[in-house]
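Hi! If you just cloned this repository, the fastest way to understand the data is to look at a raw example. We've pasted two of them here, unedited. The first protein comes first, obviously.
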Amino acid sequence: MSTLKHAATLSVGNGIAQLISLAGLAMLAHLYTPAQFGLFAIVTGVATVASVAAACRYDMTILLPRSDERARLALFTALTLAALSTVWLALLVGVLNVFTEIGWTNYWLEIAILTFSIATVQTFNVKRNREKRYQNTVLVQILRSIGIVGSSALLWRQPDGLIHGYVLGSVGALLITLAIEYRVEKRMPKCFPPRRLVFWLRRHAKFFQYTLPAVLVGSFSSQLPVFLIAAFFGPQGAGYYSFINRTVMAPVSLISGSLKVVFMREIAHMMAIRRPLVPAIAALTRRLSGFSALAAACFVTFCLLDGYRLVFGEEWAALDALAIVLTPVLAVSFVSRCLPDFAVVGRNALGLVYQLAIAAGAFISIYAAHLLWVGRLEATFVAYSLTVSILYLGKVVSMNWIARMHDRGLVTT
């Protein structure tokens, strides 16, 4: 019962945050052009990929120790890595800005600030997950959405108002997070000597060796369509994809991520006490599939009724047709992303292979469609949607198969 309560808290809270973001998008769509949304998507996409890798996945080690002192060491390790990674990223993008003509590198400072802010907030989210303080996580998410929408609206006269509004909202979320943690702990995060940090890095090196590459590739594959579409169709094409992503895919990812946080913890506990996984995984898959099918039907109906044109204006009317062809990947990815990662069931290498397959599938489908149907954005969306849907379905099938293998091992032992 507590699991459902925690999942409901995260889902409802993040749902409110998404409603705020969607309402804000309805307003921002009338203030910014698809090309501006395209540039915004590229910059925030780079920061999103970097923020996932910033802590080298040592943030996940916060969940492992029984003692709070070890958990604080894990927190300090993750925050230190995030800070060092951000400095390295700022230097790298800065050098690229000086010696290349890549447009998005002009925003090296914004990318660095976003990377550190997002990575730090994510790290404290894991800490709050350990302590079951889900209300705090939801509060930060809601205030972040309000800050991003409000800042972007106030800066609409600036060409880069979307980017700078996102930066301000993310920094605001970081400051709120630190204020909440200070109120709870009565102090800032505890510091540890370098030798303790090295000890923790060595003890959990598998997170860096296996989990980090898998998650990094997964994050990159989710942003890869934006980068490729921008290269083949320009900022406007990237803006179209980005807008669909923010109105549909981003809510799917956020809600599924919230559910996965709770389910992942429960599955890990079930494995630790050697309980069968098939009943839980199979039931979860059925319920998620039913909900996903219903949501997909509602979304298709919205698009058939010219929902994007009515809500966001004539400039976005093309999205009604483009969004429909992305429905399969939206539906299947929701189920796939809600299920626990392969790392939770001890299949780190398989997780990496799966994420590489997603990235390869996204690249091949978009690039091949561009070669076969030059200039046809809708055909490119169809190829991407069908290819990646099959790969997401592969994860769902694989996770259920792994659960069966786990349960068979319990019987034989």
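Ok, and the second one:
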Amino acid sequence: MKNFWAVGEISNSEVTSATPEVFGFVDKVSDDLLAETDLVITGSNILSLCHGFTKFGQALTIMIESDEFESGDAGLIAREIADLAISKKPYLIALPLSPWGQEVAARVAGRLRWPLVTDAIGIETIEDKVVVERMAFGGQSSTKVALPQGSVITVHPHAGKMATPVDITTTLERIEAATSSSDVRKVVEKIIECASEGPSLADSQIIVSGGRGMGNPENFELVKQLAKAMGCAFGASRAVVDAGWVDPSHQVGLTGKVVSPKLYIACGISGVDQHLAGMRTSDVIVAINRDPDAPIFKLATYGIVGDCLEIIPALIETLKYK
């Protein structure tokens, strides 16, 4: 029987929302190939998190444990996953398209000498082959790639239907990691989270983002106020981050965070390819810009041509009465 591995991610002692998405993404084609989708979790004291990952519908959960995995070090974890894959020979290994997932995926593929396909947004089977669709050219187009047995992929946020809890008993296989910090050339001793304001971009279903069209850092505060009024996260374009208006942890785009919320509100963002690559898969995109020819309007679901400094305060005022 073929086996697909969905590798889960743990952050702040919790299984991330990307984990059931990755599982659901690859599990879509498991029946077509008479395959089984297993969940692979790495970390320390994993059993304390069982409530977060044992009900996705997987027959097998592989838990690779080590106290040295507490920091989430990609080098240590990737080596352990790759070495286990040599003996168990999964057909496919899938990871989330997060900074951690991208680094682990690259290291696993390199150690195994397997092909790596990044930013997968679709998956299907064609003549007993797994075929994934991936983003290309900064999200301006996509391409389909047939995967040979023994491949690694990263899955775009919200590309897969999140696995819903099911009443199926999963077998837990606990493996003590053989890899230690002395086995790798470089070890991340500590990960310090950037101090970001408000909810996390990765988990927010609504995001309000601002660009250089806001004019200055003082005006950008309106973007934060609108996000607060809506109870959501705020983002920023690369130009805003480079100008020092906000912390880099809020940057959305090819060189920032890749997000896919249900609602994305772009305020004063022109819509260069670098930014669009990070949010084009949002369900609904609302663009506010005084330039009617701004590229963002070509992608937007709804467009408002006008001054952000007039429209945003009006939206905030309206929300006060909701």
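That's it. A detail worth noticing about the second one: Helices lie at 18-27, 74-88, 99-112, 217-230, 238-242, 273-276, 296-299, 308-319.
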